[in-house]
Write a structure and sequence with these properties.
120 residues, alpha/beta, Hypothetical Protein Ychn, Chain: A, globular, DsrEFH-like
């Protein structure tokens, strides 16, 4: 079994089911004791900002702010450097605990021993 789960989510409000699935899998894994690294890219980048997750709604899905809290309690959330730059998001703008990092860090995490990587 993988000791670490790396998830890259590219979908946001534009594809709510894919988005919710990624956050749900990450939160459940973190709650189960799996080391989780969730990467926000593309439209999901907006969820690195305070209050944005509260605007997301999907019937029969867990609230995104609760999922984010669960992920941060047991894992890491990273905002893609280029995605942040395109949206003019800086370290000072993001939720406490969210980092901004680039492709090199993603590749290091995804290629490490005992890692399972998923893309949504």
């Amino acid at each position: 079994m993988a000791k670490k789960l790396v998830i890259k989510v590219t979908a946001g409000a534009d594809a709510p089911e894919r988005c919710s699935q990624a956050f749900t899998v990450a939160a459940v894994a973190a709650a189960s004791g799996v080391e989780v690294s969730l990467w926000l890219t593309g439209e999901s980048s907006w969820f690195a900002l305070p209050g944005r997750a509260a605007e997301f709604e999907l019937p029969h899905a867990a609230p995104l702010p609760e999922l984010i809290d669960g992920i941060l309690a047991g894992g890491q959330i990273t905002l893609c450097t280029q995605c942040a730059a395109r949206r003019e998001i800086t370290e000072a703008d993001v939720i406490k605990g969210v980092r901004i990092a680039g492709a090199q860090v993603f590749v290091q995490e995804a290629m490490a021993d005992s890692v399972q990587a998923l893309v949504y």
